[in-house]
Design a protein that fits this description.
Number of helices: 7
Distance between the termini: 35 Å
Helix content: 25-40%
Number of strands: 11
Order of helices and strands: EHEHHEEHHEEEHEEEEH
Largest sheet: 5 strands, antiparallel
Strand order of the largest sheet: 1-2-5-3-4
Radius of gyration: 19 Å
Mean pLDDT: 94
Length: 256
């Protein structure tokens, strides 16, 4: 069963619940749907079964939507003008992005998907990444249930001038809010390939009181087919902030 258009609390995972919450408070969120955990339930073993992670991961890689769900997905994608407009696939494991465990960079995301074949492949790979060695190690380190319960988000993609992360609080500096951003897609920031421009605000006043602007030579842009490609940053942008003041202030107000 595909979750689309209204909040569905059961089995959609922490990231999807966060997206619904952002909608509820009136922020702009690219349209999305969720393939909930129920779709993968028959692949995930129970606590009483004998299992190994690699077998579960391989079975998830073989996953395909049942006929009714696939038809519903095609109907929704048609309203998004897919594949002319690209989509992204993101994980939403049931205990991901919760009150204690964020799983930063642990599961896989897939960007700029422009074919149904690539989309179905990305859905299965995204779900399977919840059972990767990296995810297994994270669960063990944080004393979490070893039986990961994946859900998957499919979301309309926007083509960004810049992308980044808002830190609405710093434990060390609770008086500050920070924005870290890069040109193009945020993949280069998330995987550590490039340094971000950093902007620091006082929470109470909204004053931008310090910033660090990096020299930029590479950014991720859309590839001609599915996926991203690295692109050279034109000389006029290399030493400029990737976000202008008016945009920074709007981001700050939304974050506050």
């Amino acid at each position: 069963m595909i979750c689309y258009g209204k909040k569905h609390q059961n089995g959609i995972g922490g990231k999807a619940e966060g997206l619904f919450w952002l909608l509820e408070i009136g922020l702009q969120v690219p349209d999305f749907l969720v393939i909930p955990y129920d779709n993968f339930r028959n692949i995930i073993p129970s606590e009483n079964e004998n299992w190994d992670s690699e077998t579960v991961r391989k079975n998830l890689l073989k996953y395909s939507l049942p006929g009714d769900d696939r038809e519903r997905l095609l109907q929704i994608l048609d309203t998004w003008d897919f594949p002319k407009n690209a989509v992204v696939v993101r994980s939403s494991v049931l205990d991901e992005d919760g009150g204690k465990n964020a799983f930063p960079g642990v599961m896989d995301s897939y960007l700029n998907i422009v074919s149904m074949e690539d989309l179905e492949d990305a859905m299965a790979k995204c779900a399977a990444s919840a059972w990767s060695a990296n995810a297994e190690a994270y669960r063990k380190q944080h004393n979490l249930d070893p039986l990961a319960k994946p859900a998957v988000i499919i979301q309309q993609q926007i083509e960004p001038d810049a992308s980044g992360v808002i830190f609405t609080t710093f434990p060390q500096y609770p008086q500050e809010m920070a924005i870290h951003a890069v040109l193009g897609f945020g993949e280069a920031l998330m995987n550590g390939e490039v340094e971000a421009d950093e902007f620091y605000f006082y929470k109470k006043t909204g004053k931008l009181h310090r910033q660090k602007i990096t020299s930029k030579t590479m950014a991720y842009r859309k590839a001609s087919s599915s996926g991203l490609q690295s692109a050279y940053v034109e000389s006029g942008l290399q030493e400029q902030p990737c976000l202008q003041n008016v945009v920074l202030q709007e981001i700050f107000e939304n974050a506050r």
